[in-house]
Every structure is written in structure tokens, then in C-alpha cells.
Amino acid sequence: AQSVSQHNHHVILSEAASLELGCNYSYGGTVNLFWYVQYPGQHLQLLLKYFSGDPLVKGIKGFEAEFIKSKFSFNLRKPSVQWSDTAEYFCAAGYTSGTYKYIFGTGTRLKVLA
Amino acid sequence: EAEVAQSPRYKITEKSQAVAFWCDPISGHATLYWYRQILGQGPELLVQFQDESVVDDSQLPKDRFSAERLKGVDSTLKIQPAELGDSAMYLCASRQVRHLDEQFFGPGTRLTVL
């Protein structure tokens, strides 16, 4: 069955530390990959997405993610986090199986200490 | 900037009562998704519409949940009767059908069943 796994459920970092959040997907066909962020009290919004082409994609607010097909991974990175990055991050895979569907990971709650 | 609207934002009800949630997608978005997000987990698809037609309701508990999108625009999700385990955030998202683009989320309705 199709699935998305996020390895870290809770991450605590100090400001200026580097961030890497893991995401692995399980699907044998073509997938599109997304990272969504949910700031406290706000709705889910897109950070970045990968459809094809350059496997290193850049998103908003200095985030980037690298698609490694051989590892079925799409890890999210940021070289220097800020207190305002405190949020919950969700990895998602989009694929077509009859209709276009999304599967989400369980999320990673990031807390950045000032 | 166009947004997905949802109401109410919060709903408290007693078990065995009926509840209904409303979603108005971004204008022109033919695809509409209803998700349930339990605390600490990622969104899980309940039902997907293409215009006014249900294209995926395989995860919808049809004994108590129903959804409709009569004119292919706004949508209603109903639970009758509500159970304690239905307490969750109910998210609506919409997407254009012409492009494999991301889905846009509404703010959600947080349901508490007492």
C-alpha cells in the first residue's frame, strides 16, 4: 500500500541550527512530492513541491528539499532555522490511481528555541 | 488572494447528535477534498469530488458520514450520529484539475464530541 513516513515526530533546535526532516514514500509509480507547513493556529500551506526535473527544489522561507529516487526520499532542509519556523511539517505524496490522490505523513513538530 | 473557506471553525456537540461542516473552495477549482486530521497525525482523505461527483469515498464511514457537492461548487460534510472518536479537525482542500498543482487548504473545523 502507498504510504509516507516521517521519521522524526518532535524536533527541538536552537535558532541558527541546521534542520533536516526525513520523509520516505512507498509507491512504485510516478509520484509528486510536497512539503506542507502548519504554523500554530493557521491552516496548512505549501512549502515546496517536486514534480520533475532538478531533484533539488527550493521553496519559500529558505527551505529546500532533495528528491532521491533510489532512496524513495524527499528530505526537507534549512541551513539556519529561526524561531518563526516553529510549526508542524507534513510530507505528502501525490499520485494517480484512478483519480489524483494525496497521502500525508504523520507530521514533524518542530520547536525552535530563541 | 483566493482562499478556501470553511465554517464553523469550531463545533462542540454531544455524541449521537448530528453535525454538518461547510466548505467553499477556491473559484474554478473542480476538485474538492475532505480530510480528517486526528491530533498528532497527518490528514487522511475522507472523500474526493470532481465537480459534483464523488470520485473516491473509500475511506468514508458511510454508516454515519455523508458528503455532497450538489452544484459542483461548495460542499457539505455531515456526521449523524456523532461518536466520541469523531473528535478531530476536518479539513477541506481544493485543486485545479487542469494542472497537477498543489491543493489549497481551508482553516478547518475542529470538532469536539462530548
Overview of this protein structure:
The complex is a heterodimer of chains A (about 110) and B (about 110). Chain A is mainly beta and about 110 residues long. In chain A, about 0% of the residues lie in helices and about 55% in strands. Chain A has no helices and 12 strands. Chain A has strands at about 5, 10-15, 20, 25, 30-40, 45-50, 55-60, 65-70, 75-80, 85-95, 100-105, 110-114. The radius of gyration of chain A is 14 Å and the shape is globular. The N and C termini of chain A lie far apart (about 40 Å). The model of chain A has no long low-confidence stretch (mean pLDDT about 95). With about 110 residues, chain B is mainly beta. Helices cover about 0% and strands about 50% of the residues of chain B. Chain B contains no helices and 11 strands. Chain B has strands at about 5, 10-15, 20-25, 30-35, 45-50, 55, 65-70, 75-80, 90-95, 105, 110-114. In chain B, the strands form 2 sheets. In chain B, strands 2, 4, 5, 6, 9, 10 and 11 form a 7-stranded mixed β-sheet that branches. In chain B, strands 1-3-8-7 form a 4-stranded antiparallel β-sheet, with no helix packed on it. In chain B, β7 and β8 (about 75-80) form a beta hairpin. Chain B starts with a strand and ends with a strand. The model of chain B has no long low-confidence stretch (mean pLDDT about 95). The interface between A and B is medium-sized, with 24 and 23 residues.
Question: What's the layout of helices and strands?
Answer:
The complex is a heterodimer of chains A (114) and B (114).
Chain A: E1 3-5, E2 10-14, E3 19-21, E4 24-26, E5 32-38, E6 45-50, E7 56-58, E8 64-68, E9 73-78, E10 87-97, E11 99-104, E12 108-113
Parallel strand pairs in A: 2-12
Antiparallel strand pairs in A: 1-4, 3-9, 5-6, 5-10, 7-8, 8-9, 10-11, 10-12
Chain B: E1 5-7, E2 10-13, E3 19-24, E4 31-37, E5 44-50, E6 53-56, E7 65-68, E8 75-79, E9 88-95, E10 104-105, E11 109-113
Parallel strand pairs in B: 2-11
Antiparallel strand pairs in B: 1-3, 3-8, 4-5, 4-9, 5-6, 7-8, 9-10, 9-11
